[in-house]
Amino acid sequence: MSDLLSNFNCLDELTQVIYQGICKFVVVSAVSDDAWNVHVGLSGQQGRWWRGSWTEEDVRLHFEPELSDDHLESCAEKLVECFIQGNVCISDWSAEKDAVIKFTLGPTSAKPTHVPLTEMSAVEAAAYATQVLTDIALQAQSRKCRLYPSTLDYPAEAPVLKSDQSIPLKQREKSPDTTAAFKTKERSTNESGSSHRMHAGRAPKPLASMPALKAGQPDLKASTSRSTSKNSVTPLPHKPVAALARRAKGASLANPNKRARKYQAIEFESDAE
Questions:
Q1: pLDDT 10s digits, 237-264
Q2: Which residues, in sequence order, are CB contacts of 67 under 8 Å at separation 6+?
Q3: Local structure of residue 188 (DSSP, 8 states)
Q4: CA distance 5 to 9
Q5: Do you find a cis peptide bond into 65, omega within 30 degrees of 0?
Q6: Mean pLDDT, residues 197-203
Q7: What pLDDT score does 154 carry?
Q8: Sign, CA torsion 174/177/178/182
Q9: Secondary structure string (H, E, C) spanning 101-166
Q10: φ, ψ dihedrals at 52, nearest 5°
Q11: Where in the sequence does UniProt note compositional bias of the Polar residues kind (predicted)?
Q12: Strands (DSSP E) along the chain, which ranges?
């Protein structure tokens, strides 16, 4: 590939649909070692194909005197933007045979880019269409031969084991931890079932009729009394209070240490005597 055409690699493998009047065109852009190639097909029952290309000489004629790599690469990126945004058209369109038409990028820009198109023969058109379909089929192999890429992504679901029974028998035999856990669970289930059947076969006895309970009643009372005695609060010792001194006979009420005064009645003699 020439140095000038290497700046147009961004135009490789592009496609777009053009609606122009009642006509619908499909455009395919590709870059080879010696040219930038454009194919245009007319959709419908009157399907036809045109092709055009730019060689290194065409690049020089269109971009001189600015032929630096930076300038050419910038111009190629602008052409890609026109292609993606649909800013393209078929200029000088005519349905007449051998009519000279052009594929135009940026028709409203100050300097549009034109690629002259020449109609292909039926054999050439069929060969090119077959080549395009072959490329599509090869790319579809990476998506399980689907013609169109799926928009849905189905994540792989990991298997969920609900219990030990979901594990294969051989795998459980190889794992000692799984086997021990399974046996313990099975033994616990059997013991629980037998105990349940044993108790279900007979009616429960009254508590008062059980001899063990009767024999244990004295011990229970003794234990209760000991617990009560331990938990009981010991009364605090009281200090002896001195007894009140008994009042001596004949002592004074006001002062018990003194004897009470005695009053004798005064007798008066009669006037008659």
A1: 555 555 455 666 666 666 666 666 666 6
A2: 4, 59, 60
A3: H
A4: 7
A5: yes
A6: 53
A7: 47
A8: positive
A9: EEEEECCCCCCCEEEEEEECCHHHHHHHHHHHHHHHHHHHHHHCCCCCCCCCCCCCCCCCCCCHHH
A10: -155, 165
A11: 222-234
A12: 14-20, 23-31, 36-42, 48-54, 88-91, 101-105, 113-119
Reply yes or no on whether the pLDDT at 63 is more than 90: no
CA distance 143 to 243: 117
Amino acid present at 46: Q
CB 17 within 8 A of CB 41: no
Distance, in Å, from the CA atom of 103 to the CA atom of 85, rounded to the nearest integer, reads 15
What's the whole-model pTM score? 0.55
Residue bearing tokens 């590939």:
1
Amino acid at 10: C
Compute the distance between CA of residue 76 and CA of residue 61 in angstroms, rounded to an integer: 15
Top-ranked range on mean pLDDT: pick from 43-52, 148-157, 216-225: 43-52
Enumerate residues 6+ apart whose C-beta is below 8 A from 222. Answer: none
Domains of the chain: 5-120 (2.170.210)
- Token pair, residue 150, equals 């799926």
